[in-house]
Design goal:
Order of helices and strands: HHHHHHHH
Distance between the termini: 36 Å
Keywords: Signal
Strand content: under 5%
InterPro entries: LprI-like_N (IPR009739)
Protein name: Lysozyme inhibitor LprI-like N-terminal domain-containing protein
Helix content: over 70%
Number of strands: 0
Oligomer: single chain
Number of helices: 8
Number of domains: 1
């Protein structure tokens, strides 16, 4: 058991480092920036697909069903969101950069979520951010900020996002014992 956990942690660490090996897009030429952003997305997408296959293959049936449904819902949400990023700048030359950057960032965030669901490791930065926000804006009360983020989801009209959060949080609660409202708040916090 210890060996399996150690291997899972190593794989998660290795893949997250691989995903962060993306190029720094620093050209002054729009086409080169777009190509770089696309290359970064392609790398992030490869890492996500590899982790998705690995995690899917080892989940029990109920968890696998939730995981697959959440992934389908996330893909719909990602495509709609990044199409919106493109259309908001189109016909400007930067539209392609915006689209690929959106796809890259959303894919990296989803990979982190998959790693968290698999290992239970990776929510620390959210909890640190939660503490900072609570300290400065909520009189130190984490639950007030969590409640606000949960309420934002309830008002959200994007059905793909709502379904993704529902299934992802059901899975996170089952696998990591995270409280449902905390999971919902985390999803809202990292939403693109």
């Amino acid at each position: 058991m210890f060996k399996i956990i150690s291997v899972s942690i190593f794989i998660s660490f290795f893949l997250s480092n691989l995903a962060s090996a993306a190029s720094m897009c620093d050209s002054n030429i729009t086409r080169e920036l777009e190509d770089c952003a696309k290359s970064n997305f392609d790398l992030a997408d490869q890492v996500l697909n590899k982790r998705y296959r690995e995690v899917t293959s080892k989940l029990p049936e109920l968890d696998r069903t939730l995981f697959i449904n959440a992934q389908k819902e996330w893909i719909k949400y990602k495509e709609t969101t990044c199409r919106g990023a493109y259309e908001s700048t189109s016909p400007g030359q930067e539209a392609g950069i915006d689209r690929w950057t959106c796809l890259d960032q959303m894919t990296r965030t989803r990979t982190n979520e998959i790693n968290y669901i698999d290992t239970g490791i990776g929510a620390d930065e959210f909890y640190r951010a939660l503490d900072v926000v609570a300290r400065y804006y909520e009189q130190g009360d984490r639950n007030r900020f969590i409640t606000k983020l949960v309420a934002d989801l309830a008002k959200d009209e994007n059905r793909d996002w709502q379904m993704y959060v529902r299934d992802t949080c059901a899975l996170a609660v089952r696998r990591t014992r995270e409280e449902k409202d905390t999971c919902v708040a985390r999803q809202q916090f990292y939403r693109y």
